[in-house]
Amino acid sequence: DQQVKQNSPSLSVQEGRISILNCDYTNSMFDYFLWYKKYPAEGPTFLISISSIKDKNEDGRFTVFLNKSAKHLSLHIVPSQPGDSAVYFCAASAGGTSYGKLTFGQGTILTVHP
Amino acid sequence: ETGVTQTPRHLVMGMTNKKSLKCEQHLGHNAMYWYKQSAKKPLELMFVYSLEERVENNSVPSRFSPECPNSSHLFLHLHTLQPEDSALYLCASSLGLANYNEQFFGPGTRLTVL
Question: Among A93-97, B51-55, B69-73, whose mean pLDDT is lowest?
Answer without folding.
Answer: A93-97
